[in-house]
Amino acid sequence: MTGSGFGVGRLRWHWFAAFAAALLLLPLVSETNTPTLLAIWALFALSLGLMWGYAGLLSFGHAAYFGLGAYTYAIASFNIGESTAPLLLALLVPALVAAIIGAMMFYGRISDVYLGVMTLVVTLILNRFMNATAGDAYRIGNARLGGFNGIPAFPTLNVPGDPGEQIYGTPYYYVVVICLLGAYLLARWILASSFGRALVGIRENELRMELIGYDVPALKTLIFSVSAAMAGLAGCLFANWAEIVTPSVFSLGQSAEVIIWVIVGGLGTLIGPMLGAAVLGSLKIALGSQTTVDNSLVLGAILILVVLLIPRGFAPALVAWRRRFASAQAHRRQARGTRRRHVVIRDADA
Amino acid sequence: MDYAAVVVLEILYMIAFLALISAGLAVVFGMMRVINLAHGELVMLGGYATIASSKAGINIYVAMLIIAPIAVGLIGLVVERLIVRFLYGRMIDTMLATWGLSLLLIGLVTLIFGNSAVSVPAPIPGYQVGRYQMGGYNLFIIATSAILMFSMWLVLRYTRVGLIARGAMQGADVVAALGHNPKTIYMVTFTVGAALSGLAGGILAPLTGLLPSVGGSYIAKAFITVITGGAAVIAGTLSTAVVFGTVNQLVSFASTPVIGEIAMLALAMVLLRLMPQGVTGRFFRSST
Q1: What is the reported pLDDT for A347?
Q2: Cβ contact A307–B227 (<8 Å)
Q3: Is the domain of A240 the same as that of A101?
Q4: A3 lies in some domain
Q5: Is there a single domain that holds both residue A205 and residue A300?
Q6: Same domain, A288 and A239
Q7: Residues A69, A91: contact at Cβ < 8 Å?
Q8: In-domain check, residue A109
Q9: Which residue of A has its CA nearest to B221?
Q10: Of A116, A159, B199, B240, which sits most exposed with the smallest number of CB within 10 A?
């Protein structure tokens, strides 16, 4: 699937520090509402990019875990009030659901297209179910599921231990950015560990990993679960940003969009999906504020062109171009060197 | 008694509906291992072609049975030449490119026809079963779907074209060695698949109002029916359409349509878990 040079990659601390500083200093020069949303989308894209790009598992319905995170937070915060436990639950519930579904799929040796259908079906079931939960019969504790209209006005994130002190605006942006950076570091740490290297091994040659003695289904289930927890965190942050959750978090469109972000940004990198989400997300917001060109027309055209022209996405393509440029320069330097030597030799002959 | 008749008719209708919307996708997937995620949008285009031409004064049956498949077949031909032919053998890339195409088509249709629902009245009046009022058009859908499946089977089984098609399905290189160009076969197959999707869209147009985004409600069901069915085009589609249609309607009658659909989706998961290669990967192996 990928050639040499696209293994796990490594963390370049100076780039990370510069990137983190840029994100943390952004509120000085811009408003924070849109950047918060973009950072949440970047986290969602990172969760899929980790699983798809490194373990080779494409989930066609990653919105299921995003939405589960959002709904879990909303329901739990109505019942608990203080937001720390709901936040943790929003990570745990998607991770647990993904572990169960993942174990069912991976121990059943389900792969590629069939994996796609399975994950898609889970999302569809959740979407249909949540759409049909209107009325008083559907309530969990104090929270009414609300069907098509969703759950509005739940208590948003507060300073841990102090339910009266809610976090919104610029401080909330910092919370989101710290979650994003933390998730990035976690992903880097996973990839640098032997677990991460085994995942890349599975991506490259599953049978060989199996024969070496790795428990392939267990590793797949684990990364699926980790990725789902990350998506759940993104969903929970999204719920707090939007201050309402509706069944549209489970929609087919939501699942499609995150796949587009990852593939356009670059499969097999971590920075690619995040940048893809940020760039395409801002494009979507910009397109949403005008009416001459239809939003999905542009997104669709981009996806087709990227698949046809740069199937590995922008980030790997850029790296490959830079490498080719560097090696071409090295060749030229070398060629110039030999030519000079030739001249010298000919001079000596003469 | 009347109630039983209604239930049976509704089950038959659901089976016909699933078979109809899956036929185009099944041909393309079964023969080329290509998953066309723009399938729902091709169905949607068939619907718009029908409504547009019936608004222009053409007989509704001509519009849905002739114009819709031809128009959508031509669109399929263009799509195959411009996009899909570069991606054969790359399953995930094809899925993504056709997903992009599906978004593109939704955008295009929204630009042309606007984002409001259009519809055309059903040309067959309803009838009475005891105390129950039934849609007469459903019977037409059951009949056309049955005829369509039967004629597809006849073509694949008893004609020279069908023989070549089945050959290409089992071993493309052998067919190529015997002098048939696989590229042409793929092109024709994709066009035929698109035409079948257009036909489905045309036939279903009077039943459901049309929106540019209506394809989304077909693609998931068609996708599940075809993949769970496995590689055999007709046996696979029919067997899963029968199982899913029956379960969906029985559970719907026992509870609510939403629960019925959820039951169908859950059953798809169970079937795929038990038979990872689809139903025809295990049963009906020598079928078409």
Answers
A1: 46
A2: no
A3: yes
A4: no
A5: yes
A6: yes
A7: yes
A8: yes
A9: A121
A10: A159
Query: Which residues of chain B neighbour A110 with C-beta distances below 8 Å?
Result: 272-273, 276
CA nearest to B37, candidates B84, B95, B103 = B95
Rounded to the nearest integer, the mean pLDDT of chain B is 86
Looking at this protein, which amino acid is placed at residue B156?
L
Q: Do A297 and B104 touch (CB under 8 A)?
A: yes
Distance from CA of A161 to the nearest CA of B (A): 40
The domain tally of chain A equals: 2
Q: Chain A closest CA to B36's CA: distance in Å? A: 12
Amino acid at A145: L
Find the residue in B nearest to A116 (Cα). B92
Same domain? A224 vs A343: no
Which one-letter amino acid corresponds to residue B251?
A: V
Residues of A in contact with B276 (CB under 8 A): 108-111, 114
Q: Do B269 and A118 touch (CB under 8 A)?
A: yes
Containing B134, the helix (H) or strand (E) segment is strand B132-134
Centre a 10 Å sphere on the Cβ of residue A18 and count the other Cβ atoms it contains. 11
Q: To the nearest whole angstrom, how far is the Cα of B87 from the nearest Cα of chain A? A: 8
A interface with B, Cβ–Cβ below 8 Å: 58, 104-105, 108-114, 116-118, 120-122, 124-125, 128-129, 131-132, 252-253, 256, 259-260, 263, 293-304, 307-308, 311
The domain over range B2-282 is classified in CATH as 1.10.3470: yes
Smallest CA–CA distance, residue B59 to chain A, in Å, is 32
Distance separating alpha carbons of residues A102 and A224, to the nearest angstrom: 7
Statement to judge: residues A328 and A308 lie in one domain: no
Distance (Å, rounded) from C-alpha B110 to C-alpha B225?
28
Which tens digits make up the pLDDT trace of B108-146? 888 888 777 777 777 777 777 777 777 788 888 999 999
b/e code A105-118 from CB counts within 10 Å (16+ = b): bbebebeebbbbbb
Map tokens 């039934």 to a residue.
B134
Question: Measured between alpha carbons, how far is B287 from B236 in angstroms, rounded to an integer?
Answer: 9
* Domain span holding position A99: 13-312
Which residues from chain B sit within 8 angstroms of residue A308, using beta carbons? Answer: 83, 86-87, 97
Q: How confident is the model at residue A195 (pLDDT cuts 50, 70, 90)?
A: very high
Domain boundaries, chain B: 2-282
- Residue of A125, A294, A300 with shortest CB distance to B101: A300
Residue A92 sits in the same domain as residue A209: yes
Q: Give the pLDDT confidence of A88-142 residue by residue, as tens digits.
A: 999 999 999 999 999 988 988 887 778 888 888 888 888 888 888 877 777 777 7
**pLDDT confidence of residue A231:** 95
Residues A147 and A52 grouped into a single domain:
yes
- Write down the pTM of the prediction: 0.84
Instruction: Check CB contact under 8 Å for B272 and A252.
Output: no
- Is residue A127 located within the same domain as residue A153? yes
